Amino acid sequence: MMEKSVENVEMVMDGQEQLSIDQIYTLYSKPIYSFILRYTRDEQLSMDIVQDTFVRFQSTKRPYDPLKGTLKAFLFQMAYRLMVNKLNRRKKWKALLPFLVPDPVNERTQDDKMTIQHAIASLPEQQRAVILLSYYHDLPHKEISKILDIPVGTVKSRLHSAIHTLKKQLEVDFHET
Amino acid sequence: MKHDPFQDETKLKERLNEYTAEMPEHVRNKGNFRRFISYLSSPTQNPLEPIMSKQKHLSVIQLIPIALTLLITFVQVLIFF
Fold it and tell me: Domain limits at A125?
């Protein structure tokens, strides 16, 4: 009986199919990692967030409900919240002990300024998350609004602003090269 | 009908596609101890870097211990004599 209940906890419905934790990890760990890495440009933090997301997914008191959205959006929301919390904590530490926290933004080289990486990193945080989720992870506006906890209209306007800013910045870079 | 905001942005899409992010294989099952070791070995800023960028400031840093030693010696001399 006990074994059966544990097994049930480890099986999750994703759309029409039932997936084990291993299958879920294989499916979603890479997309979550690439989202966090593109957002923060911090490999160590991205790896930690992936691990924390799946640990929390297995131990959360509010398990995934297929009626409330897709599993992908649920995991991305979890990862996004963990990342925001960690980044906020880092900001606090940075204010107290500035030399303890490395700042990847200041580690950019001159060549880096020409790249799309720099252009994305230069976007305001709210716009950055929207464009990453929309373009690289092909998430619809409704799911992005759930992940970021903002209205769908805000997702659209932020996406529009992000595209505009990126185009402007990359055009500038073209002229510089 | 779903509107794709990137539909007409061919050039932007090309640039966005340049940004790849590959996950290393050893991410899973990393314990707290290994995390702590990774934190310790991660690069951090040198707190004295802004000061060390100028030769004048470097000399000041080198002279501070000497000045402090002299000050402590002077205080001891005042107390005992």
Answer: 108-177
